[in-house]
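User: Need the bound-state model for zinc ion:
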Amino acid sequence: MQREGKLLKPLVEDGKIKIYLHVSDLFAENSWFVLIDTSLFLIDPGRGSRSYLEELKNKEHIDMIQVLLTHAHVDHIHDLMAINSEKIYLHPAEKRILLDPSLNLFEQLSISTAFSEQINFEEPEKLRSEWKAIHTPGHTPGSTCYLLVDSYLFTGDTVFADSIGRTDLPGGNWEEMESSIKLLTQLLQKKPDLLIFPGHGPVATAKHILKENPFFSQ
Ligand SMILES: [Zn+2]
Ligand SMILES: [Zn+2]
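Assistant: Bound-state model below.
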């Protein structure tokens, strides 16, 4: 039970916003649970995020769940179909990856999957006003970063604290990644205190990334 108490401590508490983290046992993927009042925005439902959500429901009053996908690799979408959400946000360029088990890497890990063509995806641009979606292709064609109230940036596998995502998987593209890094550099330079929540590894400030991440620091 001690473990539960520890797991259910938010990393961030900022007015009506709370951010919880669940780290998956599959590639240590970070699933971010962002609570704004009673609305939950679940970024990347990795393996184990469904049971974490059940635990969270015992602690927090949640009356609406929406899922935001940074991209559609297996480690980030493993529990997607097990979560009862009102909406799923995914960049249109990523749908092909999600629906093809050889592209989303379920096949390579011999994990069975069934994502139906019928899932209704919302375009990330349609998120409510606290959020801004930034299309950052490179790791995959539809990779998207999500900026929350100009203070928190969820980067999936595009940017990590000290590195960036690989571009050698299906749909990856180094030139696109370079442009995405340029775009994000401008944002990070404007907001040095911005907190970056990546798809793997620790949280970092924009300042840290600009100085220590070799793909950003000149
Ligand atoms: Zn990935
Ligand atoms: Zn990943």
